[in-house]
Structure formats: C-alpha cells, structure tokens
C-alpha cells in the first residue's frame, strides 16, 4: 500500500484537501444542522486519512520514531489550540489548560491503553510488551502529572490551586527537561526497549509478503513518505480546527442537557486524540501492543511536557489566575489510574482483564465529569 492508497488521487489524498477547504469556509462560523453534519463527516475522513499517513511515515522512519511523530504532531497542534482559546476566548479560562491536560491523560492512560490491551489480548491471547521501556514511559507520565497537576493543589504561596510565577517557571523547565530526557532515551540510548516484542507468530491476517507485518509495502519511497508527512500535517490541523468548529454545536448540546461545561473539553479532547486512538487499536490488532503503549504514554507526556511550558510563556499575556491544581475527585481518579497502570506494566504481559480495568476507570472519568 503506497501513500495514496489507490492511485495518485486516492481518498487519503483527497480527504485532507477537502477537510482543509471545509475548515477554511467554516472557521469562525456557527454552522447549522446541515453544516455541522458536513463538518462531522469531513472530520472523520480527516482522522482516518491522518492515521493512514501516520502509519506510512512511521514505517519509513521506523519505531519508536513513528509513534513519536504522531504523538508530538497532534500535541503541538492541540497546544496551539489551547493557547489560542485562553488568549482570545471569552469567559473564565483559568481551568482550561488543567481540564484539557487532565482529560488527555485519562484518555491516553486509561482509554487508549485499555482498548489496546483488550484488542491485543483477545486476538493473541496475551498482549505482550517490554516492561522496561513502557515502565520508563509510565514513570515519566506520573512524575509530570504529579509535578504539574497535583503539586499546585498543595502549594501555599498563592491562594487556590495555582503556582506563583517562579513555581510555574520551574514546572515548565522541569517538564521540558523530563520530556527531553525521555525522548533521548526512547530514540537514542535505549531504543530497543520501545520496539515491538517478537512473539514468534505472525500477526492475525498478516500478509506473508510483508516482511515486518505493518500492512504497508516494503518500504515506502522517500517521496511517498514526504507526501504522507505533508498530508498528515494537513489532516491533523484540520482535525483540531474542525473539532473547534464543532465545539459550538457541542456546547449547545451540553447546555441543553444540563451537563457541566467541562464536558465540552472532554469531547473536544476525544476528537483531537481520535487519530492516535485508531492507530493504537490497529497496532494492537497486529500484535504490536508496544506501539500502542508508545502512542498512549507518549501522547500523555507530550500533552503535559509541551502544554505547561507553552502556558507558562502565554501567561505573560494572560489576565487572571491559571488554575493547574486538580480537584479532589480528579486527584482520586489520577491516583487510581497510576496504581492500576503500574500493576499492568510490571509483568510485561496483559490479559483482557487488565484492559477492562483501565476501561472501567476511563468510563468512571467520563461519567463523573458529566455527573460530578
């Protein structure tokens, strides 16, 4: 399968272009029912096309660089959207960064990990991964979340769950440092810890002519990889932009149902992280659960490690407090998720039960966000 799937003008090339056109005409507007339907269909097409192009790029650059490309690309665009909303948005945006980052952590650590473990274990009896690499990633996620989302709740220099300027600067530098060290470990020093574990059996439905069983022709050319990289960027920009356009309809629906406004952020985060979710499930189905976990924990790390420094810089222009500390209910969910994740990662093998536990925690997060 080449970068265009079915010829020069395959749907994976057309979908991002059409999505960009729809985004250009719909940005800054409040579409009606027909417009929202069109935006929704285009959004799904952009997500699916983005997943395809991410896999082509990942195959060309190899693991774990491929997972890193998708995680960082999505997060950079997501951060830009958050900062833009905080600077230009109306109303109280003091908790926007916290709620968005926390939602991203719960979606990745419980939602993506849970569904990947269930799919991988059901199709291959056990979901096998490297506990050394995955454990390092999880430890970094927990440290980043604790430093940036938990500590502000207990600091005393400022009233409320907020950092002082110097505390925020320290958290930003520490977040960047931790993320940078992890990326170096993942891609240079101990790259083998983050590669799929060989199980000795071909993936279900694998093509015998595909040497590495990644569902792509071996290998894509440089031109195909560069084309896919460009189309991936377009697709991801469109996913985030169209999700923002749909946010008006989502806000109206949430208000009509009497749900807390935080639900809007969760829905948008789910849409933005949809490409990584689909890519993780497809990798798990091919018995490459390590790639799924690379995507999940890498996205959680990038979401914190890139968002907090960006918010720290943006706070120079922001008015009002920046509440980063979690509420008590959120702290409990984060603690439960951390304990369960550690117990899941340590053995290096996962059963469907492990994935089910994570999915129940993810469902609890969604339910308690709607009914706190």
Q: Which radius of gyration do the C-alpha atoms yield?
A: 20 Å
Q: Output the structural class.
A: mainly alpha
Which CATH-level-2 architecture? Up-down Bundle
* CATH fold assignment: A middle domain of Talin 1
Average pLDDT score: 83
Topology, please?
Blueprint lengths: L10 H16 L6 H29 L3 H24 L7 H29 L2 E2 L2 H24 L10 H25 L32 H35 L5 H11 L1 H12 L3 H26 L13 H18 L3 E2 L1 H19 L2
Antiparallel strand pairs: 1-2
Helix pairs in contact: 1-2, 1-7, 2-3, 2-7, 2-9, 3-7, 3-10, 4-8, 4-9, 4-10, 4-11, 4-12, 5-6, 5-10, 5-11, 6-10, 7-8, 9-10, 11-12
Subcellular location: Membrane
Keywords: Membrane, Transmembrane, Transmembrane helix
GO molecular function: potassium:proton antiporter activity; sodium:proton antiporter activity
Describe this structure in words.
This protein is mainly α. It has one domain (11-370): NCX, central ion-binding region (A middle domain of Talin 1). Helix content is 72%, strand content 1%. It contains twelve helices and two strands. It has helices at residues 11-26, 33-61, 65-88, 96-124, 131-154, 165-189, 222-256, 262-272, 274-285, 289-314, 328-345, 352-370, and strands at residues 127-128, 349-350. Strands 1-2 form a two-stranded antiparallel ribbon. α1 (11-26) packs across α7 (222-256), α2 (33-61) packs antiparallel against α7 and α4 runs antiparallel to α12 (352-370). The longest helix is centred in the middle third of the chain and has 35 residues, at 222-256. It is globular, with a radius of gyration of 20 Å. Residues 1-8 and 203-217 have low confidence and may be disordered. One of its GO terms (molecular function) is sodium:proton antiporter activity. It comes from Nocardioides thalensis.
């Amino acid at each position: 399968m080449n970068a265009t799937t079915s010829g020069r003008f395959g749907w994976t090339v057309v979908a991002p272009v059409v999505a960009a056109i729809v985004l250009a005409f719909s940005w800054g507007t409040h579409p009606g029912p027909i417009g929202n339907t069109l935006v929704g269909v285009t959004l799904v097409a952009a997500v699916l096309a983005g997943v395809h192009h991410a896999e082509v790029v990942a195959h060309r650059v190899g693991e774990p660089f491929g997972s890193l490309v998708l995680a960082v690309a999505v997060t950079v665009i997501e951060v830009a959207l958050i900062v833009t909303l905080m600077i230009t948005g109306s109303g109280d945006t003091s908790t926007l960064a916290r709620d968005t980052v926390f939602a991203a952590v719960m979606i990745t650590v419980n939602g993506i990990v849970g569904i990947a473990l269930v799919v991988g274990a059901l199709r291959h009896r056990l979901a096998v991964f490297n506990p050394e690499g995955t454990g390092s990633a999880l430890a970094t996620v927990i440290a980043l979340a604790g430093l940036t989302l938990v500590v502000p709740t207990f600091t005393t220099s400022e009233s409320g769950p907020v950092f002082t300027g110097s505390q925020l600067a320290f958290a930003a530098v520490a977040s960047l440092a931790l993320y940078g060290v992890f990326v170096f470990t993942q891609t240079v020093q101990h790259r083998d810890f983050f590669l799929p574990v060989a199980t000795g059996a071909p993936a279900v439905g694998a093509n015998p002519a595909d040497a590495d069983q990644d569902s792509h022709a071996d290998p894509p050319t440089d031109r195909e990889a560069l084309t896919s990289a460009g189309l991936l960027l377009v697709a991801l920009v469109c996913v985030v932009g169209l999700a923002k356009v749909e946010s008006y309809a989502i806000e109206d629906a949430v208000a009509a149902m009497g749900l807390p406004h935080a639900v809007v952020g969760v829905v948008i985060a789910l849409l933005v992280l949809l490409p990584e979710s689909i890519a993780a499930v497809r990798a798990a189905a091919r018995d490459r659960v390590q790639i799924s976990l690379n995507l999940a924990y890498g996205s959680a790390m990038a979401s914190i490690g890139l968002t907090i420094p960006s918010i720290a810089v943006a706070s120079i222009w922001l008015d009002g407090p920046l509440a980063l500390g979690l509420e008590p209910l959120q702290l409990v969910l984060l603690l439960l998720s951390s304990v369960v994740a550690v117990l899941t990662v340590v053995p290096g093998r996962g059963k469907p039960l492990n994935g089910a536990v994570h999915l129940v925690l993810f469902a609890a997060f969604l339910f308690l966000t709607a009914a706190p």
